[in-house]
Design brief:
two-stranded antiparallel sheet; transmembrane helix; globular; 18 helices; 2 strands; about 75% helix; Growth Hormone, Chain: A; Lysosomal dipeptide transporter MFSD1; mainly alpha; MFSD1; membrane
């Protein structure tokens, strides 16, 4: 079983990294815009005179728009390419940030966040599309991880310089600065990013052919070498797409719930930390991801049949960390909060495995669409989780003067999303492995692999 690569021989490394780097910088700015309201949550409550549930509505609206845009954006990406989509998205996001900077009414602020969501929706999937176009397949898992993890450092910009501008100069200058940054990155993307290398096509006899899943979880049927029509139905009919969807679903929402809105209020009002200390925790999370990402990517490349175990392991780590923090009735020591943010970083890292499933199960001509479908999973789960936390906070403390017990109850509500996500993940994995078995690829049970390793060690 093989799929003909739609791309030519690898481009010069310097050029490839310049193109990817420009796209990645635009994604960092998009993440900064996405997370900016999380650190400005308390100021937003005062500016717009709103409750916690209404504050969560800002993130819910933005994430709903982001999620709803993913499939249309994916279809558009397969048609017009990354360069135009990244540049246009950066300008739309900048318009949303500029609007948010000057309005002071709730309806207009929500409209501004809609624009931010639309602009944000174009960045990640467009950059992911660049990776297999410009780099050898062996590097793709690591660079996919690095795209997500380096992109998440946008939260450092939100947590440190943006918060500093917000606290010193106020709401309008802080959001105007983000708008200016978005315009700058749109211009850079238009100049530097190219959809694929401009290299001469090799002779047909020397065309690059890649086994779809050398050791990977692959579909049972060969993918034709001809150019294919983008088909959403075909993408949705592949069990591997749903494996990627629920991987992203179960892995991303814990991080988004914390980083996008409720982490800073939890750390300040619930744990008694200062705003500066909260910024440090978010920075530790982002920096830890830079280390975790390449490690996870290398493990994916070396053990592609066990990628789902990375996801399950990260989920177990996060559930354990939240249990450790939420069960006690007193504020937690610093080391436990560090463990929590590291656990949330591990799930964010694991969420990128979902895009690797899309890459190995779906033909290249449909990769943008498949990536969009996978990306929907994490953000649908995120908006449900964010709203649940805000709803519980309003129910237990309508006056908005939150204490630790309020956050303990609110974050415990995430358990509902965990159950849905893990059930979907395990179901999709079973269906995917059944499809693989029909094509002659059998994933041996872990106990057999361990027994084989022990026997090999003894014989050695």
């Amino acid at each position: 079983m093989a799929v003909v690569s739609p791309f030519r021989d690898p481009a010069p490394a310097r050029l490839a990294f310049a193109v990817w780097g420009a796209g990645l910088a635009a994604y960092v700015v998009a993440v900064t815009g996405r997370t900016s309201l999380g650190v400005a949550g308390l100021q937003a409550v005062d500016r717009f005179e709103i409750s916690a549930a209404t504050l969560s509505l800002f993130s819910v609206v933005q994430l709903a728009v982001y999620a709803a845009a993913q499939i249309p954006v994916g279809l558009l990406l397969d048609r017009i390419g990354s360069r135009r989509l990244i540049a246009t998205g950066a300008m739309v996001l900048a318009a949303g940030q500029l609007m948010l900077a000057v309005v002071d009414t709730l309806p207009m602020a929500l409209a501004a966040r809609v624009l931010v969501g639309v602009g944000d929706a174009t960045a990640f999937v467009s950059v992911l599309r660049l990776v297999p176009a410009w780099f050898p397949s062996r590097r793709v898992p690591v660079l996919t991880q690095m795209t997500g993890i380096v992109g998440s450092t946008g939260q450092i910009i939100s947590a440190v310089p943006f918060m500093a501008v917000l606290l010193r100069f106020g709401w309008t200058p802080a959001f105007v600065s983000l708008a200016a940054l978005g315009v700058f990155m749109g211009i850079v993307a238009a100049i530097v990013v190219r959809d694929r290398p401009r290299l001469p096509a090799p002779a047909p006899a020397r065309e690059s052919v890649q086994p779809v899943g050398t050791g990977a979880e692959v579909p049972p049927a060969a993918v034709p070498a001809r150019r294919e029509k983008v088909s959403l139905r075909a993408v949705m009919g592949e069990p591997g797409t749903w494996l990627g969807f629920f991987t992203h679903f179960v892995s991303l929402f814990p991080t988004n719930t914390f980083v996008l809105l409720w982490g800073v209020p939890f750390l300040t009002a619930g744990q008694g930390r200062s705003a500066q200390e909260a910024s440090v925790f978010l920075t530790v999370s982002a920096l830890a991801g830079v280390v975790m990402g390449p490690v996870a990517g290398e493990l994916q490349a070396r053990h592609p049949l066990r990628r789902s175990w990375l996801v399950l392991g990260a989920a177990a780590f996060a559930i354990g960390a939240w249990t450790m923090v939420l069960v006690p009735t007193t504020p937690r020591p610093t080391w436990q909060l560090v463990v929590l943010v590291l656990a949330l970083t591990s799930t964010a890292t694991a969420s990128n495995v979902g895009f690797d499933f899309a890459r190995t199960f779906v033909p290249p001509a449909r990769l943008g669409t498949a990536t969009g479908v996978v990306n929907v999973g994490g953000f649908v789960a995120s908006l449900i989780s964010i709203y649940l936390v805000g709803l519980v906070l309003d129910l237990v403390r309508p006056d908005g003067h939150y204490v630790l017990d309020d956050f303990r109850a609110a974050f415990a509500a995430q358990g509902v999303v965990w159950v849905i996500g893990l059930t979907g993940l395990l179901t999709a994995r079973h269906a995917t492995r059944r499809r693989m078995a029909e094509g002659g690829v059998v994933v041996p049970p872990v106990r057999e692999v361990i027994a084989r390793m022990r026997n090999h060690h003894r014989e050695g």
